[in-house]
Specification:
Strand order of the largest sheet: 1-2-4-3-5-6-7-8
Largest sheet: 8 strands, mixed
Number of helices: 9
Number of strands: 35
Shape: globular
Helix content: 10-25%
Length: 569
């Protein structure tokens, strides 16, 4: 469920190869930096419904759960890992035998590690994940599911580390919470109702508020799923179980009054050797026998409590909770760094309180045009307004207590070499955004409620060539099909070179460019935004007004709107 999926033209990396085992086609990523004599993890990903056919292509390699194993925007892996991304039209069960033979071959004839084989899947692939771990219950080190309910025999998988992910409004996984609770009961947690916060007892569970079936992006991009998976080793010894018996999360307490925590720790195939207790990441005590009880006098604010249970064979499992002692939010500084007109600005407001602090502005008109304050306290953007601005900012903590403070920000004149862009608008009166070209920025924004707008970082610059630092205009992706001759208009305060970055599809899909770009010079190289590729066209303009036609993307068979970069001539 990726926006514009039909137009994806991912060129891939040389480490990817297309293969076939019996009737199963799959893409295989083999890291280029494998060291002789070492063994490496294997990750199997099964995509959601439905493929166009049973033929694999590198299109299967762009799903978020594949990219979390290999961050192809940066072309790197934190840990070298074989990735298997097979294809199917409908249903995965008929491919299990072939896929297991592929993984067995990586172990027997290559450098696959039999103790670190991981499986993950989304939607139909999430169901496939639940099914394959039941068919081969002792084969995998960990499993990650997204957007699907559990079907099958819980007893077969209750000891296999599972991280199940669900969108709050997803009908395909509406029964998952109860199923998670049922498996947890088998592991000794009888009071659970499928809470997301409970750790240390299988399965681990995440629920994403306001998210529907497209949960794979949220799950893969906001959590350290791979870090969790890599911590799991399948050496025949099952992981111990540990959890806090206190039913409240977080636990609210009063300053100076001790809190008693009761911990359950057990081991399905051995015994618990010890339980270490940490408060705010400092070891406080070690409990060597049941009943496991820990008494703590919490300090003001959030007290992070962690219990780590070790079994008699050296494996460990972590559980954590939070004890909150009320602390009104405090803004530790009211001074903001100086900004410059035409230069990208970013700062983070410092605050303390209970839980995460949410920031807002009392009056948005007091914020320099082009800057935005985000809920996490990040103030960023590009403004052309000079002067001193006083912003009334509200900081609200997890207990819904708020504090108001006026922050002053000074915006000075532009730096040498920068260009000021003004009167930026479309023929329909829409205002586009200004930014600076850099790795991680998005080429387009989305003004509508869609997958791209809820996941703005799915398509980000990963190779910007020599255009790093240029001012650029983020166009609305929803205007891609506009064909008006004078669609985009803006003013420059200098003689400039205007660069238009227009998407190029030339591997699976073929695209063209609009006739008006023939008046521009085509530059060498491309700008890459993950699996999107943009050719760049340039033209000199005098100081003053610039007008550009619409992208006419439908006529030219591309998915994204162009974006514009400006450089002082």
């Amino acid at each position: 469920m990726i926006l514009f999926s039909l137009a994806i033209d991912y060129k891939g990396f040389p480490e990817w190869s297309l293969n076939k085992k019996d009737s199963t086609e799959y893409a295989l990523y083999t890291p280029s930096n494998l060291q002789p004599g070492s063994k490496y993890p294997i990750a199997l990903f099964m995509h959601g419904c439905c493929g166009v056919d049973n033929h694999v292509s590198l299109r299967n390699a762009v799903d978020p759960p594949v990219r979390m194993w290999h961050q192809f925007g940066a072309d790197k892996q934190d840990i070298p890992t074989y990735i298997i991304a097979p294809a199917t039209l409908r249903g995965w069960a008929q491919h299990f035998k072939s896929l297991k033979e592929v993984m067995d071959d990586l172990v027997a004839n290559h450098q696959g590690d039999p103790q670190r084989i991981y499986v993950c899947g989304f939607s139909m692939g999430g169901e496939g994940t639940f099914r394959i771990i039941q068919q081969y219950p002792d084969y995998f080190a960990a499993a990650i599911t997204m957007g699907m309910t559990f079907r099958g025999d819980s007893l077969k998988v209750k000891d296999l580390p599972i991280w199940a992910n669900q969108g709050e409004t997803d009908n395909f996984s509406r029964g998952l919470r109860k199923q998670v609770a049922a498996i947890r009961v088998l592991n000794g947690l009888t009071a659970d109702t499928g809470s997301t916060w409970i750790e240390g007892v299988n399965p681990r569970y995440s629920n994403f508020k306001g998210v529907g079936h497209g949960v794979q992006w949220d799950a893969a991009s906001t959590q350290d799923l791979t870090g969790w998976a890599y911590s799991k080793i399948n050496n025949g010894n099952k992981y111990p179980i540990v959890f806090f018996e206190n039913s409240d999360y977080p636990i609210h307490a009063e300053a100076g009054k001790p809190v008693v925590l009761n911990i359950t720790a057990s081991d399905p195939d051995g015994s618990v050797n010890k339980v270490e207790m940490y408060s705010n990441h400092v070891l406080r005590t070690t409990l060597n026998k049941a009943p496991y009880q820990f008494t703590l006098t919490p300090v003001r604010g959030d007290n992070i409590i962690e219990a780590i249970a070790y079994d008699n064979n050296g494996k460990k499992t972590n559980a954590s909770t939070i004890i909150i002692v009320n602390m009104k939010p405090v803004l530790s500084s009211k001074t903001l760094p100086v900004a410059n007109a035409g230069d990208y600005y970013q700062t983070r407001l410092p605050a303390t309180g209970n839980g995460p602090i949410t920031f807002s502005v009392k009056d948005k008109s007091t914020v320099p045009k082009g800057l935005d304050l985000y809920p996490d306290g990040t103030l960023e953007g590009l403004t052309n307004q000079e002067g001193v601005f006083k912003i009334n900012i509200i900081a609200t903590d997890d207990d819904n207590e708020s504090i108001h403070a006026v922050f002053a920000i000074t915006v000075k004149g532009k730096k040498k070499g920068d260009v000021l862009i003004s009167k930026l608008t479309t023929s329909e009166g829409k205002e586009y955004k200004l930014s600076k070209v850099s790795i991680g920025q998005v080429p387009n924004f989305n003004s509508k409620d869609s997958l791209l707008s809820s996941n703005p970082n799915e398509i980000t610059f990963s190779n910007v060539g020599g255009y790093e630092g240029l001012t650029y205009i983020q166009t609305d992706v929803n205007d891609a099909n506009k064909s008006t001759e004078n669609f985009l208009s803006f003013e420059n305060d200098e003689d400039v070179v205007v660069y238009v970055a227009y998407e190029k599809l030339d591997k699976i899909v073929t695209s063209t460019v609009p006739a008006w770009l023939k008046a521009f010079k085509k530059e060498e190289g491309q700008i890459v935004a993950q699996y999107r590729y943009f050719d760049v066209y340039s033209r000199a303009y005098k100081k003053g007004n610039v007008m550009l036609p619409g992208a006419d993307a439908a006529k030219n068979s591309v998915g994204l709107n162009y974006f514009v970069m400006i450089k002082k001539k």
